[in-house]
Amino acid sequence: MQQPPTLEPVFVSDPGPYLVTSSIEIKYLLSQLLEKGEIICLYPAGKREPFAISTFLAMDDQGLLFDGSNDKKTNEALTKENRILLVGVVNKVKIQFELPNANLVSYESRTAIRSAGPVQTLRMQRRDFYRLDIPMSQKVVCTIPLAHGGHPELLVTDISLGGLSLLGVSPDLPMVVGNTLHNCRIQLLDVGLIEIDMQVCIVIDVTLKNGIKTQRVGFRFFDLSGKMQTLIQRFINKIERQRISRE
């Protein structure tokens, strides 16, 4: 069993794979911390000490507001350079925000810390690639050409830049771990069409809620081109924006 993420900061030499700059997604992550009352940790930017276990109190036009420490020296150290690092967990994934213009304020007769909002965040995913679960309302299928001319279509249940999962069984296409399927075609809604080679990594027998027995098959991609990567990332961003706008 995987351990939950800690609230210790992570400093990486290449933040690119973890960087989130979408204002919509940043607002969503902050709102999740606020609405769920998640425990967070505050650090001086770029440092591991001192730190304060805190809670997110408010988010408004003036910025963000957090509980301060009971220790005066810790509060002074946190805001000495007017930048703080917030570390929290949203949906079991560690996130980090660097917050500018941090200063001490009084809030309901206690010390609090107010800062400006972030322009980016780090989202430390457990996977090498972010995996998107595709909503049932957004039906995406994978068409698999066969040597004898058939082309079964299976439902795509999730996708990332590293691979995808399919749901369904075709009598003409037994799924065997290690087998490679060539020239598979997936229409990513109105984003575009991708054509890929992929290898079977795992096959799981599942029973759906209606009692139907089927299979969930996990694949990894081979030599995904830059163009195909761009289309998949656009699709992931599109579905994520739609999901966030509904919450």
From TrEMBL:
Q: Which keywords label this protein?
A: Bacterial flagellum, c-di-GMP, Nucleotide-binding
State the InterPro entries in the record. PilZ_domain, Split_barrel_FMN-bd, T3SS_YcgR, T3SS_YcgR_PilZN
Question: Where this protein primarily resides, as one coarse class?
Answer: other
Q: Name one GO biological process term.
A: bacterial-type flagellum-dependent cell motility
GO-annotated cellular components: bacterial-type flagellum basal body
**What assembly does the database describe for this protein?**
Monomer. Interacts with the flagellar basal bodies.
Name assigned to this protein: Flagellar brake protein YcgR
Native species: Iodobacter fluviatilis
- What would be the name of the gene that encodes this protein? ycgR
